[in-house]
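Hi support team,

I'm opening this ticket because the web form for multi-chain structure prediction keeps timing out on my end. I have pasted the exact lines I submitted so you can reproduce it. The total is 641 residues across two entries, so I didn't expect it to be a heavy job. Is there a limit I'm missing, or should I split the entries? Thanks in advance, R.K.
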Amino acid sequence: MATAAVRETARPHAAAATGTPLIEVDNITKHFGSVIALAGVSLDVYRGEVHCLLGDNGAGKSTLIKTLAGVHKPSTGTFKVDGRPVEFQSPRDALDAGIATVYQDLAMIPLMSITRNFFMGREPTKGIWPLRFFDFAEADRVAREEMQRIGIDVRDPEQAVGTLSGGERQCVAIARAVYFGAKVLILDEPTSALGVRQTSMVLKYIFQVKQKGLGVIFITHNVRHAHAVGDRFTVLNRGQTLGTYTKDEVNLEELQNLMAGGKELQDLSAELGGTV
Amino acid sequence: MAVATGDERLKQASALTRLMRRPELGALAGLILVSVFFWSMASSQMFTLSGVLTFMSPAAQLGILAIGASLLMVGGEFDLSVGSMVAFAGLIFGTAVTVLQLPLLLALLVTFAMAAAFGALNGQIVLRTGLPSFIVTLAFLFIFRGLTLVGLKWATGGSTQMRGIREAVADSALAPLFSGQAFQGLFAWLAERGMIDTFASGMPKVTGIPVDIIWFLGLAAVGTVVLTRTRVGNWIFAAGGDQNAARNSGVPVARIKTALFVTTACCAALVAILTVMDTGSTDARRGFQKEFEAIIAAVIGGCLLTGGYGSVIGAFFGAIIFGMVLIGLTYTQIDQDWYLVFLGGMLLMAVFFNNIVRKRATGER
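Hello R.K., no limit was hit. The queue was backed up. Here is the completed structure from your submission:
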């Protein structure tokens, strides 16, 4: 079958990346009762690369993310972190293994300050109980520094997250994951609701994170955004991977076609006089 | 890129913006307004030491409930059963010391343990069913009130009032913690030196500070510190702001919310004990509609009905406003029943004001 052949040609390029993959899933499946959400997905991500996961709605992206994040356990297949097989019982286990997921809702609370959000659930404290307090001086300093590193000039880390733009919020969520020691970042459609300028800000930051040596799995259905920062691309369709390609193997249009199941989109394009 | 250099459309956060961001601002403004009103309308008696203590006493009883209510509201839940809990805890406490003749310490433990258990029950029902706490605790509003009536008749042989509680605990070493006045020695000392007003006999006009006021001040301080300065406080804000986001970030949401329901119920039990020890009796109407007043005080104090925002110190000010108006009206020519009109009006104003403040704080347009 064509998909198998594509995967064969893609492998050598994957091996060209350095060392053991940070995450490697091989032929995993996931069933929910009679529903087959994942029917054989293989994916790996290396240090310092952005691996884009493309797929239309219902392709199985969410299930795959949740499997990687420790929410679901795969029905079959192997899941390795740093070359060692793992079996996550909870999202906490995935976090401890250095896999941080930034979901679409960002896990940010608009009414709370940047500092309070940044350290939510992991607040630095000082003093001895019952006089153990939230160390705001330290937390504000770290929050301001981390924001500066992204290029967001936070005059006042006490300002509510609700006052930040969508792109800034996305960057704060990513910065939080990086600060707390993530080795692999899974970004769930980080640019889906953003304007052009906001998008470029987020993409720029993803590039920065990659250069720090983290592995990034970037989930999107926007081929343009993917192509801007991605090193490799995996297309997911109906619960299966249609293959992994490096940037020089594939262009925008080919990716778009792969994602939409090719033919249908071409037909549609013809029908609409080439406007899609 | 514009973001990197700072957006020129955003001004520096001014001192005023910072002030506007504080949830208790409205309550403080309200308190100043009400003080000015009575300063000009009421007799000067109202703002003497004894006058202040007179309006602080009802403020304290409401305020202790409001402190619990505000913490719970910031945590994203309501408790409409606190008023009935005051009556029910009063019954348990009264029964423990008069019918069962337990020593005060044991009676206190039994009362608080019972309140904590029912608070936890409220919390567990809300958390496990996912039903709004509004409706769950509304059910308990009636359940506790009914249990109190039934229990009182059973314990007293048909009456809805229970007496003789003060006599039963008068000689306990713990009694001064929950009844009477504190700092009597200090006030006598001050009177001797002519630093406070005295009667002609040389007795000070104010012999001490009622203990409920001390509890009120203490709990307001502890509540404020916990909410704004500790890790648990951050978890309370997070649990109320968005419980899914909080849970995904590792905040133990269920534990926090249960603890808040327990705290609220224990605040109600404390008010029950303080008032029962003070009057020496308890009856079925104790705490009637206090749940609404407590929530109003919390809202005046800046708590949003949607959770995740508010303050304890605001509820503290809110409760003082109530006490001031309730007692203050007796110093004026105004009909006292305007109190209820005032209550509703204040609530409406506070909600409008909170809405504006929230929009400013979050930059919502």
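A quick check on our side: Residues 28 and 77 of chain A are 4 Å apart (CA to CA). Let us know if the file doesn't open in your viewer.
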